[in-house]
Design brief:
single chain; 125 residues; alpha/beta; five-stranded parallel beta sheet; 5 strands; 21% strand; globular
Amino acid sequence: MQTNKKILVVDDEAHVRRVIELKLKNRGYQVLTATNGREGLDLIRIEQPDAVIVDLNMPVMDGESLCRLTDPLKRERPFLTIVMTARISPEERTWIEEMNETQFVEKPFSPSNLLERINAYFGIR
């Protein structure tokens, strides 16, 4: 299956980026990667991905800052954001629920579950 959908993976851990990248490319998605929120923000503005997968804990700019800066962009061009992290309390998650087109996935994550969420968002079976 080939798709014209572009997915950005923002995570400071190379092995996490690689696992997600391989899973998505095997399903026909175009994949971009960034190692921190600042790189991710630049790619979102330039490449306009259809979905962004972002870790919360990263150097330079964390995932929450990236989400808060990109949420207003979704009013003009909606895109899915999947926030991933290993440790977050229910109280800390409230900001995620306030974001447009944003979902939460707990680490460790299932690459298949991530793919299912993305496919569902795009209406792909």
